[in-house]
Design brief:
Blueprint: H1 4-19, E1 25-28, H2 34-45, H3 51-58, H4 60-75, E2 80-83, H5 85-88, E3 90-92, E4 101-104, H6 107-114, E5 118-122, E6 125-127, E7 133-135, H7 141-151, E8 157-161, E9 182-184, H8 185-193, H9 201-210, E10 214-218, E11 230-233, E12 247-263, H10 268-278, E13 283-288, E14 295-303, H11 307-322, E15 326-339, H12 349-359, E16 366-370, E17 373-379, H13 383-393
Helix pairs in contact: 1-4, 7-9, 8-9, 10-11
The chain binds aspartic acid and magnesium ion.
Length: 400
């Protein structure tokens, strides 16, 4: 919803879905850049804006676009009505700026739909039990859309984004990356949490839990040129054999910390990571090396934004407390991951991945795996090379 033109374009597309016999609920987000603008304005007035008031403010971006879209629809002869989150009522908890949806009352909306009206709902916002306005975290309109689709038992939830689907990897790094026709919820969750920013992670979790059929589409395609985007499916839904690897994800926002020469005795992991968790720092990968001479080295990764803070915590408090020899850190690392549900039934994916990286002389610093994912930490300077060679080695550039 970047401009008046784009809003009219959205209205045309909505009108067509409606003409084709569908009942349509449209969840909109703010005009592009608007939420950022509002947050910057708040910070200009108060460096640490009060979160209740911040939500009152940043929810306004969506209040503007619901009205604009409703006007545009009425102008082309489509009956339409806008709703804020609290008018619907999208009930959330009271965690301002990252509230969770508890319940959606679909009654009013359903009445309008039965009345042949297109319903337009402000995404990203809700209301708590005391009537306070809340917001759902950045990108939260995705979650609003999925939650409404679940509440109204919609046939499909289509999320229009600035890309035309989910890709095997970022096409800016690998031009041969392909758009996937389908991907499973689990894979999508891994891709999202590993740095592919197509959808808000919570919306994918929600869709998986409530079995909402979800499709990612482009909001930029012109009428008549639309593609089918990417369908996010339940694994059971597909009769096709799953590809071994569906995508290569990566994340640059990583940093590694190592506590060297830690006495190797019970409780050490807790003594190191307990205070880190208490400081609200998220830990991702963890490695404890095999001990020798009664000591060991202990490494973990955090978000790069937390690097300085974590290093200071380790040096000032944890190192003297556990009696470690030294602390070292590296904030020039990245994480590269291969994701695919097909891995479950195909052994050897990890060894292939390690071989490909070795052939390029890329040193693996850390490894972590799940049933459907293998992640490695490597030097940031190898990120693009690693993504490219893995994408090719797993034949993701080839049509299936
Ligand atoms: N306008 C909100 C944001 O920028 C919600 C969204 O776009 O999904 O994060
Ligand atoms: Mg978005």
């Amino acid at each position: 919803m970047g401009s008046p033109d784009r809003i009219r374009n959205v209205a045309k597309r909505v009108a067509r879905w409606k003409r084709n016999g569908n009942q349509v609920v449209v969840v909109v987000s703010a005009m592009s850049g608007e939420t950022n603008r509002l947050i910057a304005l708040a910070k200009d007035v108060s460096p640490q804006p009060d979160e209740r008031e911040l939500d009152v403010m940043i929810s306004t971006g969506e209040q503007v676009t619901i009205a604009l879209l409703a006007m545009a629809l009425k102008d082309i002869g489509v009956s339409a009505k806008s709703y804020t989150g609290s008018q619907v009522k999208v009930l959330t908890d009271s965690t301002f700026t990252k509230a969770r949806i508890l319940d959606i009352d679909g009654q009013n909306i359903q009445r309008d739909l039965d009345d042949d009206t297109v319903v337009i709902v402000a995404g990203f916002q809700g209301v708590d039990a005391s009537g306070n306005i809340t917001t759902l975290g950045r990108g939260g309109s995705d979650t609003s859309g999925v939650a409404l689709a679940a509440a109204l038992k919609a046939d499909e939830c289509q999320i229009y984004t600035d890309v035309d689907g989910v890709y095997t990897t970022d096409p800016r790094i690998v031009p041969e990356a392909r758009k996937l026709d389908r991907i499973t919820f689990e894979e999508m969750l891994e891709m999202a949490s590993l740095g592919s920013k197509v959808l808000q992670i919570r919306s994918v979790e929600f869709a998986g839990k409530y079995k909402v059929k979800l499709r990612v589409l482009s909001s930029f395609e012109e009428e008549g040129q639309e593609t089918m985007g990417t369908l996010i499916t339940l694994e059971e839904d597909t009769t096709m054999e799953q590809p071994i690897i569906s995508g290569i994800a990566f994340n640059r926002d990583e940093a590694k910390l190592t506590v060297l020469g830690v006495p190797d005795h019970p409780g050490i992991a807790y003594q190191i990571l307990g205070p880190v968790a208490d400081a609200n720092i998220d830990i991702d990968m963890i490695i404890q090396n095999v001990g020798h001479d009664g000591t060991t080295d202990f490494s973990f990764t955090v978000n790069r934004n937390d690097f300085v803070r974590t290093k200071a915590l380790l040096e000032d408090q944890i190192k003297p407390h556990v009696g470690a020899r030294a602390v070292s850190g590296d904030n020039k690392i990245c994480k590269v991951s291969a994701v695919g549900v097909g891995m479950r039934s195909h052994p050897g994916v990890a060894s292939k991945m390690f071989r490909i990286l070795a052939e390029e002389g890329i040193n693996i610093q850390m490894i972590s795996t799940s049933e459907i994912k293998i992640s490695v930490v490597v030097d940031e300077k190898y990120l693009e090379l690693a993504v490219r060679v893995l994408h090719r080695a797993f034949e993701l550039d080839q049509a299936t």
